[in-house]
Amino acid sequence: MATMEIVFESGKKVNASYNGFTIKTDQSVHAGGEGTAPEPFALFLASLGTCAGIYVKSFCDQRDISTEKIKLHQYMEFDPVKKIMGKIDIEINVPDSFPDKYESAVINAASLCLVKRHLSNDIAFNVYVKRS
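^ thats the sequence. predicted structure below, dont judge the formating
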């Protein structure tokens, strides 16, 4: 079982330690924080785009396709009724030199993103208190 430790700093700062890295978060000034680090939800959104990006990069690297001019743009649409993201589009911008024959394949590669796949499956979440 993988373990991530969550610790509190001053103000609204909450950090996670995982695999030797410290992932820092804070709330925006508007939400009572200092705005010194991304909010947790921003990191969640970034994890979707960067995950798709690593799959696109790996796809291109395996085929010796330069990724120098390839960018992904992620568009998020908030659903005001459900109060959650209702739609997320990831657009893969490629140069004209990108081989046409790989267009649908690179879309499929980006769609394999592990973060995205976790959203489309039921995950058991358990929150509990343990006294030490």
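The domain at 39-123 is CATH 3.30.300.20 (GMP Synthetase; Chain A, domain 3).
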